[in-house]
Design goal:
The chain is an alpha+beta fold. It has two domains: 105 residues, no CATH class; 149 residues, Immunoglobulin-like. The strands form two sheets. The chain has a six-stranded mixed sheet with strand order 2-3-11-10-5-8. Strands 1-4-9-6-7 form a five-stranded antiparallel sheet. A hairpin with a 2-residue loop joins strand 10 and strand 11. Helix 1 packs antiparallel against helix 2 and helix 1 packs across helix 4. The termini are far apart.
Length: 282
C-alpha cells in the first residue's frame, strides 16, 4: 500500500489515468499488478512536496504510458494495425536475439572455464635427435640432477629432435605452431605432430612415420612432436646453445593458448661451427 503522497500530484494522477487505458488489453490481474508497482515506485522515488518540474522529469524518465504498456505486451492504443503488427515482429525478433545472446554467452563462459582449468600437455618418456648424423654423435651428460644431450652444430644445415608428448586431459588439444624460439640461430623452425601410431600410443619408440600441423592429441593419448630448424649460430669451441623446453601454441576449444613443455633431457648444440663466422665479434 502506497502513502498517496506522490500519486496525489495532478501530473501523476493524469499519468496513471493514461496508463490504465494503455493497460486495458492486458489481463486484469496483470494490469493491476503493473499499475500498483509503478505507483509504488513513484511514491518512493518522488519526495514529499515535489515540484511540477521534478514530477515531470521523473515521468519523462519512465516513458509514456503507451510505451510501458507495449513493453508489458499490450498493444499500443490508437496505432494503425500495420504499425502494431510491425512492432510485434520487432519484439519477437528482439527476444529471439536476446535469447540467442544469452545462450552464446553461457556457452562462451563454459568454454572459457574449460580453457582456464584443464591441464597442459606433458612430456612423454622418450626423445632423441631426429637426424642420424646427430643421433650417432650425441653425448649425454648430467650435472646437479639435470641432463642434456649435446651434438656438434652443423652450420647452415637442418637439425632437430623429437619427443613424445601426452595429453592427460579429457579434451583434445591441437598443436597449431611453435611459439618464437629464443636465439636467432634457430632459422626456419618447423614443428609437426605425428599421426596416430599404435606403438607410440603405448609409449613405445617409433620416431618415423607421418607428421602433420596442426596436429591433434586426443584425450589420454601419446603423440610425437618434431622440431626442426636450420642452425645458423656462430659458436666458439666449447660454446653451447640449446633448448631445455619448447613452448607451443595449442588450440583448446575456442581458444589458443601457449603451453611450455620442459624436457627431462635438454637438447644442446656445441661449437665450433664450420661456417665462416667470428664468435668474438672482431
Amino acid at each position: 500500500m502506497v502513502s498517496g503522497t506522490a500519486i496525489n500530484h495532478p501530473l501523476v494522477r493524469e499519468y496513471l489515468r493514461e496508463l490504465d487505458g494503455a493497460l486495458a488489453a492486458l489481463p486484469a490481474g496483470r494490469a493491476s499488478e503493473l499499475r500498483e508497482q509503478l505507483a509504488a515506485h513513484l511514491d518512493e522515488a518522488l519526495p514529499p512536496g515535489a515540484s511540477d518540474a521534478e514530477v515531470a522529469a521523473m515521468l519523462k524518465r519512465l516513458g509514456s504510458p503507451a510505451s510501458l504498456a507495449a513493453e508489458a505486451g499490450a498493444p499500443i492504443a490508437r496505432l494503425p494495425t500495420g504499425v502494431r503488427v510491425r512492432l510485434g515482429r520487432v519484439r519477437a525478433r528482439t527476444w529471439a536475439v536476446v535469447a540467442m545472446a544469452i545462450a552464446l554467452t553461457g556457452f562462451g563462459i563454459w568454454a572459457l572455464v574449460i580453457y582456464l582449468t584443464i591441464g597442459n600437455l606433458q612430456p612423454g618418456p622418450s626423445s632423441g635427435w631426429w637426424y642420424s648424423q646427430d643421433a650417432n654423435r650425441a653425448v649425454i651428460t648430467t650435472a646437479n640432477g639435470a641432463a642434456q644431450t649435446t651434438v656438434p652444430i652443423r652450420d647452415a644445415q637442418r637439425q632437430g629432435f623429437w619427443f613424445s608428448i601426452y595429453n592427460p586431459t579429457d579434451w583434445t588439444q591441437t598443436v597449431v605452431a611453435p611459439a618464437p624460439l629464443q636465439g636467432t640461430g634457430f632459422q626456419d623452425p618447423q614443428v609437426a605432430v605425428s599421426v596416430f601410431n599404435p606403438t607410440v600410443e603405448k609409449g613405445g619408440l617409433t620416431p618415423g612415420g607421418r607428421f602433420t600441423l596442426p596436429g591433434s592429441i586426443p584425450p589420454h593419448q601419446y603423440r610425437l612432436v618434431r622440431l626442426r630448424w636450420i642452425s645458423t649460430f656462430c659458436l666458439a669451441p666449447g660454446q653451447q646453445v640449446g633448448l631445455p623446453s619448447l613452448t607451443l601454441n595449442v588450440h583448446v576449444g575456442w581458444f589458443t593458448r601457449t603451453e611450455t613443455i620442459w624436457f627431462s633431457t635438454a637438447f644442446d648444440l656445441t661449437g665450433p661451427g664450420t661456417g665462416r663466422c667470428n664468435p668474438n665479434g672482431d
